[in-house]
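U., I forgot to send this yesterday:
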Amino acid sequence: EQWSVNNLSFSNNCVLVLCLAGKAEYVFSDGSVISSQKDRILFFPPKNIRSGKADPQEPWHFISVNFDMVTLDGNRNAFYRVLSCIDSAPESVRAKFRKLSLLWKEKKYLYKLKCRILVEEILYELLSMVKSNTDSRSPSHFHEIEDVSVFLHQNFTKKISLKDINRLHGLSETHFRKLFHDATGMSVK
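Result:
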């Protein structure tokens, strides 16, 4: 039977997927589409509604992990805005995914603790990669986007206009929208 999911979403859990082989395509609630490719890592934050389907000619093989992560300061979504898709996972990350899958299947003593540690190591490595890539592209604007993201997360219950946001960073609305999307993978709205 061919792999597919329809309107999949998790309330609190993030999902990381390592594509091992084959092809699949995800369609998101906003109409955007992303395809799998070998060694690509996909990141889905909580409440991200998506449907997906594997290519019947090239069945999709993958390892996925669902997790909830809270930083030491209690922030649940500190890294959601910087992870989205990494086209070529380094071998060290792929090896950690394989080890994670094996530990989960074997279910030996303390396997959940070992799996949690591996997920955190994977996240650390991926976030370090993304940060170094972002810093080399546009370090000054990254920090402005980071400040606006923090402001939005702290004030999500309030009505905030783009003019309010523009006052925070001093960039044109069009330029800011592009920078924000490039940095977070999401629209400002």
